[in-house]
Amino acid sequence: MDFGKVPGEQVASINFKLPEDGAQTIKTLTGKPAENPAFYIGCAKWGRKEWLNMIYPLKTKEVNFLDEYVKHFNSIELNAVFYSIPNAELIRKWRIKAEENSNNGFVFCPKFSRTISHIKRLKDAEVPTDLYLSSITEFGKFLGPCFLQLGDNFTPNNFEVLETYLKHLPVDLKVFVELRHESWFADPAIRSRLFEMLARLEKGAVITDASGRRDCVHMELTIPEIFIRFVGNGKEYQASDFARIDEWTARIKEWLDKGLEKVYFFLHQHDEKDTPILANYTIQQFNKYLGSRVPEIQFIVKTGELF
């Protein structure tokens, strides 16, 4: 994931402190702690050869990587369906792998296909949307929330287009929206209008924590659930990334105390080799301080021997 990537020498100068809660979060989280909040922690893809002899047995074939992935994680931010609208047969194949190899309540969180979001830009997108929805329903009980990522050049001039598109989605489809153009966050009036609209339509707002785009760490919750895309900076900056995870843990604790019900937390790296290490640290912190009880990743070799 290259979004928000900065040269390595700039990482130390970035202020990673999380902003204060946004106005919409204060409106959304007004209740008592949920009795049994749910936690989903995962990565963005399973097809990583670098994970052989790390979390996948050494001789695992690529076609079986998903079989191994679902043994370690209880969710995935499914980017694979972004590049083309998936067919139902492929989704069924993935679902069966989860059925046969996971016992952790695994969910797929599929990204909307780019035909819808980046090519059609949500206009006249009824046909591809119907095809997309028809396919992902094949996940059945393994379907988590979908996330709609709009392009970097999708500006507030498209507000009505976005609102209209979201209104016409099935009401029982859980959706989180990721916006990237700076103007969605820079203008207080636009920002307020955006998050109020998402709250009214009961759609979530993705929070993307990337080094070079601190404005996307908007801290606005429009529903009592969060979908966080955390982008780490790799082995060299592991201490910094762990400290960022610590701060997220503290903030999520505050939100849980105010009624947060579900946490979807997905780990990315510009170099994905050590993403399982970052993910496992996240699991450890959430289990220790948030009571999440997510099983830790079972590494084939000790983490200290991985590099």
Which terms would index this structure?
36% helix, 307 residues, TIM Barrel, 11 helices, alpha/beta
Structure at a glance:
It is built from eleven helices and nine strands. The protein has 307 residues and is of the alpha/beta class. The radius of gyration is 19 Å and the shape is globular.
Descriptive account of the structure:
This protein has a single domain (12-293), classed as Protein of unknown function UPF0759 (TIM Barrel), CATH 3.20.20.410. β4 (146-149), α7 (159-167) and β5 (175-178) form a beta-alpha-beta unit. The chain is an alpha/beta fold and 307 residues long. α3 packs across α4. Helix content is 36%, strand content 14%. The strands form three sheets. The protein has a four-stranded parallel sheet with strand order 1-9-8-7. Strands 4-5-6 form a three-stranded parallel sheet, covered by helices on one side. The chain has a two-stranded parallel sheet with strand order 2-3. The protein is globular and about 55 Å long. The chain contains eleven helices and nine strands. The mean pLDDT is 94. It has helices at 8-11, 23-28, 65-72, 88-101, 114-119, 126-136, 159-167, 183-186, 188-200, 238-257, 275-290; strands at 38-42, 75-78, 107-110, 146-149, 175-178, 204-205, 207-209, 225-232, 262-269.
